[in-house]
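Notebook entry, structure prediction.
Reason for the run: the old model in the group folder had no record of what sequence produced it. Starting over properly, with the input documented here first.
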Amino acid sequence: MGVENNTRDIEETVVTDFTDRMSYGGYLDLETLLSAQKPLSNHHDELLFIIQHQTTELWMKLMVHELIGAANYLRNDDLGQALKCIARLKHIQKTLTEQWSVLATLTPSEYAQFRDRLGNSSGFQSHQYRAIEFMLGNKNEKMIKVFDADPEAQALLVTALNAPTIYDEFLRYLSRRGYDIPDVVLKRDVTKAWVFSEDLLSVFITIYNQHEEHWEAYETCEELVDLEENFQFWRFRHLRTVQRIIGMKMGTGGSSGAPFLQKALELTFFPELFAVRTEIGN
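New structure, fully documented this time:
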């Protein structure tokens, strides 16, 4: 079966009657998905703004799913499956970072024509983003209050706040494998943000200086470094896109805007995995 007049025939085996069959649109519930974009202005570019943020939230939903999976696999000593989740997370992060380039096509004058329709809505209020930060180690109990009006979202954050981070689970995994993880690290208050532990550094120095003997731990360390680095790339692109579109204006949610996002670049998830690089070869 060839192509004639630039037209491809439909093969006889292709299903075309979906009267009583599951269709593509039905499986994906496209009627709901494609009707979820409800611009509040008549401006052409508001649809871009909505879809950018909705697709980001969809990818973040998968990130939350994969982070929960990776933590569970580590808890059950299944490092291979945990690394599979992390590999997928890294691809999602790359997609999310590249997606900022689409929003960056929105000019300041275009955005100004519908920005007032956002009211106080802001990405600051993304509970999934906060959950991801919590799961990676940037916990901040004060963020819980932002979601008082959304009990379901708040419940997800409370769960993430009280659960060990993926780094906690990795360190516990290493401890069960015989690595000398300090007791104070294993018994830390997991509701608090991770802070640098000098006592933990010696463990990673051994892993990196003797990486052939500690390959699984070494590989996992590098995968976690990729996660943090990718997350910082995303934060940076967020900052630069905001600066490009609104300059130094305040955020719609009441934050200082670009200066607030700049501070996020100082946050870290796995500081020992970066600090160890200074010690290698010394």
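Summary: Strands lie at 3-4, 7-8.
The old model has been moved to the deprecated folder.
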